[in-house]
Amino acid sequence: MTRTPLIVNALGQLDNPNAPHSAEAASELNQSSEQLSVDARAVADAHASGMTAVNITLGYTMGDMPPYEHTLHELDVWDGIIRDNPDDLLLVRTAADIRRARAEHRIGVIYGFQNAVAVGEDTGRIATFAERGVRVVQLTYNQANHIGDGSMAPENRGLTPFGREVVEALNEQHLMVDLSHSGERTCLEATRLSREPASVNHTGCRALADLPRNKTDEELRLVAERGGFVGIYFMPFLNVSGHASATDVVDHIAHAVNVCGEDAVGIGTDGSVTSIDDLDAYREQLVEHVAQRQAAGVSAAGERADTLPFVIDLRGVDQFRELIRLLEKRGFGSERIEKIMGRNFLEYAGRVWGA
């Protein structure tokens, strides 16, 4: 491929994990946005990678902080980060903003949640979040909440009655209903209920690696049939050994395309484009981090102290170019690759948020 296509990461990070501020927080259960380092290197690396836009995680995901208040504070933090970097970052509210970010050589920042607990018992808060710029709302994390069951909830109960109200409120505000981390019944029920097409912004294919964080063909197919989007992550869950490779990423993308069609599949790496420089030190911190996640009951099957939360041979500023090279080697044509790298997410965003 002679030119860099539009690249949209449906779930990623803007952070320099090597900066002291971020490195010190790496072992904590739940890093806040204030503990990220959106510094010169993080921004330069994002540009160098060719990435046009990224859905970042903010707000309450887990922990003992008050979910709603913490989420509003996190929005303030990210508003400040974007305000302090006007030449490099752009808040994305519509699909047109992604195109604008590309035209202006900026990085589009999409505000997203990985848990909808901050809604509390008041669906009216969803309008507040939408006004503040949130565009992606994942219903559950790994565990169950008052909206539905996560992928690690053994009962697999599906949406709660209040969860159905949440989906309807998200539709009213034209926000993405993200079913990553959800249990199978929650995913299927929410996809069928939602008037707007739903997404699974970062996942793998359970047909290739039978782990709860991955989606069954039934889930993937239904999301695609209803006009939704599926993003494949660069995570250990792509291989049952926990040691996923770039080849696994390509395998999962190829399988998702076979199940969903080439117009519904993209990438949601769940990682940063800035590489960790000292992997040995990071592995020591990872032991503590995984132990805390397991103790808190928020980890997923397949997480272990020896499984890195990224694909070791598909990281850094060249990760997207390397993926393109591997997709070409697999026989994917340039148009299909452009769809996977960003066009499919852009088209999906237009269907939900507006053009």
Key words describing this protein structure:
355 residues, alpha/beta, 6-stranded parallel beta sheet, 3-stranded parallel beta sheet, 9 strands
Give an overview in words.
- With 355 residues, this protein is an alpha/beta fold.
- It is globular and about 50 Å long.
- Helix 9 (246-260) crosses helix 11 (319-330).
- The relative contact order is 0.15.
- The strands form two sheets. Strands 1, 2, 3, 4, 5 and 6 form a six-stranded parallel sheet that branches. Strands 7-8-9 form a three-stranded parallel sheet.
- It is 41% helix and 11% strand.
- The chain has helices at 20-25, 40-49, 67-84, 95-103, 125-131, 161-172, 184-193, 217-225, 246-260, 279-296, 319-330, 334-353, and strands at 8-12, 53-57, 89-91, 107-113, 134-138, 176-178, 199-203, 229-232, 265-267.
- The longest helix is centred in the last third of the chain and has 20 residues, at 334-353.
- The mean pLDDT is 95.
- It is built from twelve helices and nine strands.
Structural class: alpha/beta
- The amount of helix comes to 40-55%
How many extended strands?
A: 9
- How many helices does DSSP assign? 12
* Computed Rg: 18 Å
Query: Beta-sheet strand percentage?
Result: 5-15%
Global outline = globular
- Report, as a whole number of angstroms, the end-to-end distance: 27 Å
Average per-residue pLDDT, rounded, comes to 95
> What can be said about the biggest beta sheet?
6 strands, parallel
Order of helices and strands: EHHEHEHEHEHEHEHEHEHHH
Unreliable spans? none
